Amino acid sequence: MPLPDVNINILDGGLGMLPSGSAGLQAKIGVCSAGTVGQIVSVTDPGKIKDLFGTGPLCGALYDAFAAGARVVYAVKASSDIAGTIGSITATKTGQGNITASGSPLDAYEAVVVIVDSGAKNAATFKYSLDGGDNFSEKITVPTGLSYVVPDTGITLEFTEFATYPDQSFLADDKYEFKTKAPQASVNSVNNAIEVLLDSSYLYEFIHVVGESDAAMWAALDVKALEAEAKFRFIHFLAEAAAPAEGDTVDQWVADLLAAKASFASTRVSICAGQLELIDMGTGRSVTRNGAGIYSGRVSSIPVQQSPGKVMTGSLPAVIGLRPVGINDGHILALDEAGFITFRQYIGLNGFYVTNGRIAAEVISDFRFVEVRRPMDKACSLVRTAGLRYEHAEIDPLNQDKSLSAIEASLTAPLDIMAGNGEIAGGRVVIPRDQDVLATSTLRVKVRIVPMATMRWLELEIGYENPFQQS
Can you tell me the distance from the alpha carbon of 131 to that of 278, in angstroms, rounded to the nearest whole number? Predict the structure, then answer.
């Protein structure tokens, strides 16, 4: 028996401390020209993106996210098992020679090649643009070997001389234009990258899958979201809808997207249909691509209860215009009501805004908007963490009410904190007292949350009044 003394028993958990959580953190999966497939890379400095990933769709989405306010992104390179392609070339020329393009493009480009000085090889000069003619390279001499590798694009330009009169091959102002499609990751490749993230200890709110996708990919992401939830990761996915195919009208493109969406619904998958012309942070070029990167940055930069379309937050950065050319409010409305993320303008305001932070859920679902999805996911994570304290804890079946009241208070604490932060309007925890925990070893708990309301329409009544005729 020890000597008599004053013994100290230090308790832990009395402060009700909670983990910092994943709010504002995102992961991205996409293809790029550098880096290691399946490796998670923490990106905090957009100046390092080129060194880490080279070029490609993943890089563009990272630049856009940082431009719109993201601070930390966990990026995973996926296998680019669907090669990029080069579209048909349109030539406007008087020269008798020709220019063709070959290779596997590393990204989507709007290429323009213009002859500057007339002549044959080693005399004629040209310049090229990758953004539809907004920015051009320096003047380059047509090589003696009649082949020029466009740096960091995966594209090779092949020049063909006019055999009879070589000097007439390439004449000033001859123009060649073509577009490329970026390489993509298959469903299997994306699933492999998702598994890397799910098996890691990194915390994140959502995973952005970069690159065009269809209903098959969306369905696969929904399965992965349910798999993540089973592993107590309460996350959602952000996918990108396909851009208009070559020759598509805006109406045809919208109709195709509506048809694809008609067979799909999910409370944990968002699909961005909105196309934007924007300034690429990495290259300074004007590019047209899916706006999911910009959208993801906006979501990461705002509180969980806030709509990414909140006008007071300000217009979206780096955006020049809505695409495709000819899109109007009718098209945007149809896509928005179908559950796609789109972008819009307001009469009287400059700039461009998110229409709604849509989740691709059914119209009867609570989770049609990301500002409802995010607080619920945060609450699930925090309340579960608070509940883990009581795993294998004892309950006195003869004095059950006292024990259950203490558990209710502990589980309510994170909801009170969220309410204090304005993330939810309120929350409550109810534990039915008529449970036979002694027999079942199971405690049933009901958690209810009141979300913040979002004003999507304001109805203003305006009219004249005569102060002398007021009663």
Answer: 11
Helix (H, G, I), strand (E, B) or coil at 76: strand
In order, the DSSP letters of 261-291 are: HTT---SSEEEE--EEEEE-TTT--EEEEET
User: Is the CATH number 3.40.50.11780 carried by domain 26-81+187-371?
Assistant: yes
- Tokens in use for 37? 């497939």
Domain boundaries, the chain: 26-81+187-371, 85-181, 399-471
pLDDT tens digits, one per residue of 40-77 = 999 999 999 999 999 999 999 999 999 999 999 999 99
Contact 171, 94 (CB under 8 A): yes
**Per-residue pLDDT for 256 more than 80?**
yes
Closest alpha carbon to 413 in 379, 454, 377: 379
* Cβ count near 435 (within 10 Å): 17
Tens digits of residue pLDDT in 356-402: 999 999 999 999 999 999 999 999 999 999 999 999 999 999 999 98
As a whole number of angstroms, the distance between CA 304 and CA 424 comes to 9
